[in-house]
Each structure stands twice: as structure tokens, then as C-alpha cells.
């Protein structure tokens, strides 16, 4: 080996060694940062769990008070069992909060909630309920006033726990975000002079960060959905309670109307629960659903609710898909309602069902509206993005999440009626599902 050959060899070896060292340094740093992100995400989930439990406890306490109030309103003990069930729920949630308490301050707050809850329960059983049954208005009023004091105390404690959890979540999110930004900058610096092998590592890290960002978005929506769902469930529960009370005395068409109100209120509760599945939509048993029947049912419901106006809706085609039926109806209702709103009075909506040879199904909803601009089309499925003055921007985001959880997706393009066409694609059934059918 000559001097030139030896020098070249050494340079190649040095260059290769430098590349390996650069890759090792980048990999080590990236792995360390990913571990930090993983730990931060785990802590974020734990804090988020405590926040959800605190909100559930607040809802359970309000339910307990609602049954107490119903006892006063109805003047009998018909809500005693419901009060007992609500009380059991409060106790279970309180125990879970006590198990997950981080420090002495949280444990003291939970202990105070437990003591206040015990006092409220004792007041109901030993004082208020006997006063109600005895028709002692003065005693009832006095007991109700004390009950409000205990409920307010519990609510204040729960609000404090929720505020602490939210503050901790914000801190964890800021920490994870700082780690993400720091990791990205150093990864670019270390991998800037690397070869394709090192560039591949950079792509991997970029994809991992992107997945984490998407996960955090879904987690944020899940937290929002949880808060909204708990608040909506309360008035829905009251509506259902009064509807069922009225049904006992209703006859004829009024009874039928109340039954429809009850069904729709229950359906609203199902939809609210569906919002909680943003981070885990589509989990649960699936069944074969006739797509045409589902589409026609959605159109009928919208027509009864006067949500279609003078819009003409035609359904064509047949097909079956293995899905969670309530989730499918939620998606179809969103798509048809949006299409009708886009078409406007006197417009047209077409729902066309098709099944491919492999069993995969498609439901295309077209409208005669103005269509969707390219700018809006790129963001249609982003949470909270909407083109409507009063829209929430959650309908299509939730629908896409449900479709993806079923192994499908929703795509948008231009339809034959001149407006937009949203196509829900669902995969073919698995062998196990075909065998079950």
C-alpha cells in the first residue's frame, strides 16, 4: 500500500468514523429526547385522568343534588333509589381521586369532599326525606338550605382540584412542547452534514414528532369534549326525567310525541358520549348495517326535525358495512345535514351507495351548492375549522375520526350536482366478520 493509497484509506475511514460518530450522537440525543417526551406524555395522561375524574365527580354531585331536589319537587320518596345510586357514584369517584392524589394538600381536599358528601347524604336520609314525607315545609326549606351549602362546598373543592390539574397539564404541555422544539433544532444541526443514512434518521424523528403533535391535538379535543359532554349530559338527564314523568299521565298523540322526544334525547346522549371517543373512536362491537336503511333513517329524522326545509334528498344504491351503527348514523347525519345547508332552499342532495367487488363500501353525499374552495378543502377536517358563521368546526373532524377508527376515511371533491361531494369509504369485512354473518 503506497502513501497516497494509505492516506486515502485513512481519510475514508476517518470520514466513515465521523459519520458513524455523528449518527451515534444524533441517535443518542434523539432517543434521550424521545424518552423525555414519552415521560412527559405519560405524566400528561395521568394529570388528564385526574382532571377527568374531578369533572366526573362534579357531575355526580350535581346528579345527587338533582335527585334531592326532585324529592322536594315531587313530595315523595320516588327518587330515593336514584339518590342512593348517585351517592354510590360519588363515593366511588372520591375513592379514585384519593388513590391518585399527588400530595397532602390534594388528599386533604378529597377528604373534605368525602366528609361533605357524607354530611349531605345523612342530611338527605335523616332530615330532608322525613320532612318531605311529613309535609313539613319549614323543615324542608331549612334542610334544603343546608344541602345547598354542602353542595357548594363540594363544588368549590372539586373546582380547586380541577384548576390544579389544568395548571399541571398546561405546565406539562409547555415542557413537552419545549422538548419538541429543542429536539428538532439539535437534530437538524447534528444531521445537517450526514449522508442519506443520517437523513433517514432525521425523517424518522420528524415523523415521530408529527405523530406526537397529532396525539396532543386529539388529547386536547378529548379534554374539551369531556368537559362539554358532562355539562350537556346534565340538562339532557333533567329533560329525560321530566319527559318520563309526563309520559305516566300522557295519552294518545301526546304520548307518542313524548316518546319521540325521549328517543331523540337518548340519541343526543349517545352523540355526546361519542365526542368522548375522539381519542379512541370506533372501539366496541360492530355489526352488519344496511347502508340504505341507515341513510333513509337519517334523512327521515332530519326531515321530521325540519332541518331539510325544501331541499330534495334522493338515496340510491344498496350495501352493507360492518360498523358501529350509532357512529355510522352520526357520520351520515353530519354529511347529509351539511349537504342540505350547502344546497340551500330548493336545492338538491344525492346520497349514492356503492359496494366494490372486495366488499368495501362507499357512501357519497353530493349537493347542488357552491362547492368548497381549495383553501377550505385543505382544512375541512381540522378541529374547530368551519366555513359557517355559527358552526363549531367539530362535525367533520369527529366524522373523520370515526371513519378512520373503522379503517376508512372521508374524502371531498366536486360532485355531479355542481357542489361538493363527501365520500365515506369503509373497508371490506374481515374473515371473522364474514363468518359471523
List keywords for this structure.
single chain, 437 residues, alpha+beta, Four Helix Bundle (Hemerythrin (Met), subunit A), Heat Shock Protein 90, 3 domains, 5-stranded mixed sheet, 11 helices, 7 strands, flat, disordered N terminus, transferase
What does this structure look like?
The protein is 70% helix and 9% strand. It is of the alpha+beta class and 437 residues long. The protein has 3 domains: 7-187, Up-down Bundle (Four Helix Bundle (Hemerythrin (Met), subunit A)); 221-279; 287-435, Histidine kinase-like ATPase, C-terminal domain (Heat Shock Protein 90, 2-Layer Sandwich), CATH 3.30.565. The strands form 2 sheets. A 5-stranded mixed β-sheet has the order 2-4-5-7-6, with helices on one face. The longest helix is centred in the first third of the chain and has 72 residues, at 3-74. The protein is flat, with a radius of gyration of 29 Å. The termini are far apart. 30% of the residues are buried.
